[in-house]
Amino acid sequence: MxxxxxxxxxRYVAIYIRKSRAESMEDLEKHRLVLMDLCKRHNFKFVEYxxxxxxxxxxxxxxxxxxxxxxxxxxxxxVCVVEYDRLGRGDLGEQDRIKKxxxxxxxxxxxxxxxxxxxxxxxxxxxxxxxxxxxxxxxMITKRxxxxxxxxxxxxxxxxxTPPFPYVYQRYKEKFNPKGIVVDDxxxxxxxxxxxxxxxxxxxxxIAEVLNRKGILTAKSKYWSGVTIxxxxxxxxxxxxxxxxxxxxxxxxxxxxxxxxxxxxxxSEWVIVENCHEAVKTQEEHDRIxxxxxxxxxxxxxxxxxxxxFSGLVKCENCGHSHTFYVKRDELFMKPCWYTYPTGExxxxxxxxxxxxxxxxxxxxxxxxxxxxxxxxxxxxDTLSGIQTLxxxxxxxxxxxxxxxxxxxxxxxxGDYSRDEWLKRKRKWEEEIFNTKNTLYDLHKQAKSTVQxxxxxxxxxxxxxxxxxxxxxxxxxxxxxxxxxxERIIWRKAGDDIKVSIKFN
Length: 505
Fold this sequence. Notes:
This protein is α/β, with parallel strands linked by helices. It is about 50% helix and about 15% strand. It folds into three domains: about 10-150, Rossmann fold, CATH 3.40.50.1390; about 165-295, Putative Large Serine Recombinase, Chain B, Domain 2 (Hect, E3 ligase catalytic domain fold, Alpha-Beta Complex), CATH 3.90.1750; about 355-505, no CATH class.
């Protein structure tokens, strides 16, 4: 690797280290020392990005997301990794995303063996080959993991991740199960109380509230919910069996954009193994619970999905949840907010006839329109000017913070700081720089929005609203009209005390 070539003018670099599935924290530290040594030999000033996680999707790795954003902004001259594929070995889309970030900013990639200039055709082709073989290796590893999971499940071994409450993995006090999971005695008592309450007819939501009021939390120290309780009640793991290969795909809310949707496989493809661990409920109890849950209506009425004029717009002032609506004797009402807190208390924000709240909303809209027209000549300029002033101030602060970070790095290089003191000061300035950049991003977004939605635009929307609202009877269409000018309506009613406030777009 020829770093002495004048082609490569490198001073500021980022070190990126990622722990893969098969590696230990010791491996991570070895990689870190290798890259630190490389930086010191070539007098690079460096910042560390250390990622501990198993996901190969960029979107599920916050450190690489942050790094790529800064690479695109040209913050670093190069990024140091132990191997090219450490940056990512996902699909072609993610590989392309990485390449474009480095090509756009002319940022190099440095490994102990080679320096990559992705704007050079030879290096670009070489990187493509490295990426191809990394993807093939990843596919092979993933395939082996899936096969290993199936084989383990057929042997009665626990391969389904974190075991369900009240189980813990493999060992608890004097208990040990070489195949996987054992019962936590303390959790067992809680679990049995859940089962007994369910058998006595108590709904999952009520069981959750009872536990929360007693201060009994989940294994992750969170409040129980009705959904969590119901999942626990119907889980067949508690019968002493292991069920694997039940689903395919990814149901995670933060899954990769190109990930396959979660689907349940036919029962003939499931891997079911009996008597793998201690059972905590009987088959009779399980069947009875399933019967009780099935007997309850879990599907809302058709009216629940009806769109009304204020659907999704009216928010409870107390808890922030949306109010819903219903029809009674051909008249439309807004329901009280009966949101149940984790401990079982109700919110109890009263409802009202929709005709009453609509009159109040229209009155507030008129006030806004009148005030808006009166202030229009100066409001737009003042707002945009204020945002631009804040942008200028934050940009100046950002330059000061970047300079302060450079001084800290220089001081460490000259031996003025110990490593601990340097890391402390460096992290402080990196955090401030990060926060300022986020602030600037929000301000630029706000400025853009202010320019895009001018006062003239707002006046036109208000005019169109008044022209159409009086003769539009369709509820969904009225909802669309209100949404053109209103972001949300904040509602509070306690007896005769009524308050409506509107957040306009």
